Model the fold of this input.
Amino acid sequence: MNLTREEIIEAVNGALVNEMELDPAELAPEKTFFDDLGLDSLDMVDLMIGLQRKFGVSLRDNEEIKKVRTLGDVYDFFEKYQAELTRQAEAAKKQAEQPANNP
Amino acid sequence: MNGLKRIVITGCGIYSALGDTPAELFDNLAQGKSAVVRAGEEEHFLPTAPAPRDPDRFRALPRTLRRAMAPSACFTAMAGLAALADCGLTREELLELNAGCAVGSTMGSVSALRDGYSLVLSGQSDRLSPMHFFKSASHTTAFNLSRTLGLQGAIYSPCSACASGLQAMGLGAALIASGQTEVMFCGGADETGSEVSGSFALMYAHAPAEGNPEDSPQPFSAHRKGLVCGEGAAVFCLEEYEHAKRRGAHIYGEIIGYASNSGGTGLSQSDAPAIARCMTATCAMAGIAPSDIDYISAHATSTLQGDAAEAAAIREVFGDSVPVSSLKGHLGHTLGASGPLEMAAVFEMARHDLLIPTRNLREVAEDCAGIDHVMAPREKKIRVFFKNSFAFGGINASLICKINV
Done:
């Protein structure tokens, strides 16, 4: 994955414009999905199905994604999620590189 | 319908392969145009009669509504909006009147069902949209029409294959006649696809892939080889007569008789005695003699057994004195939409005093003879007409409409 924040914003906003037919000018980080952008819970599920494919992750049982309220929350979520995945991958790699400690 | 309230039609909207308005549809029918083309490989190159599915057309529907709609529901919503505009009632009035709807289709949406199963069977269930259910549910046409028009009254969705649309008309009429409501939006819609055409083909009831597509289907013809699936929608505004009169609404006609029955035994084969009983019951409900009918809009899809059974029943009930034609030769068999959609065309025929002939009928089959086939445009005043719709499962439905109210 390893996308920059700008690339994450582009991917998320692209889904909102293409799938939800929102005006790109409306897509500011502080906008809330329900009150400001007029989406509902079914739209959010659809949006997440599209984004999990785009980012190659599974969001179905992710508790954090269920807490997002604003567009900025989603950018932050994917940025943190990506950083966490990178950290886990590096830790796994480091562990694999350690010499075997056989008796 | 003695002792019951009278039901009139005060609005009409259609979405079809041959036009989005009844006037455009009539013009194309009068010119003898065919909607039939050859399908692609997915449908084994069978002839088919598709309606426009251009997404830009459907953008007339807000995304919040459209997201739950497959083509069948889009067709319905487009026809419903046209019916609403035509009837002259406002959305506020629909709420005050507690208006409802009854719209049916064969199986919801074959394309949405296919899309869903494709994902499930390929192990991609996690890609299923929550909208999948709403697009493919058997009552998708009804609740999507209800949402599009903001209806809060009764909502029904007869699911009786190719009789769905006419049964919806009969159901709406019954609710108004019994005084339960004053306004119902009723009709049918359907979409074609390989699941539908393939089923007919398996039963040797579909027109073949070979030859010029426009030469199929051939209702009542000696050379008929099966039907051609089509698609579209028609929605009517049914209204209690006194209410329509008080507000000075344009009245297309009055539904004076409706009946539905079953042969009780048949699966795919039509049953002439049952059809005759259904037509006789419809005349009895209307309180008229068969000789009072000016025109019969036949179901006749171009199947070997179905056309013969319908012709036999018409022969028994009406003899050879009532003109008969089928519009399947122009539009293909629009399945659940066929009853209401063909009715919309008949109202235009009545307006022009012109009967549209059965397209592709040049030589009447022996087993379809003995009735008055309209084989060329014929000037004729239509005061009362008869509409038939039949369906797999032995279902028959007939409706009588009086033009001059």
Observations:
- Residues 71-87 of chain B form the longest helix (17 residues).
- DSSP finds 15 helices and 16 strands in chain B.
- Chain B has a mean pLDDT of 96.
- The domain at 7-246 of chain B is CATH 3.40.47.10 (Peroxisomal Thiolase; Chain A, domain 1).
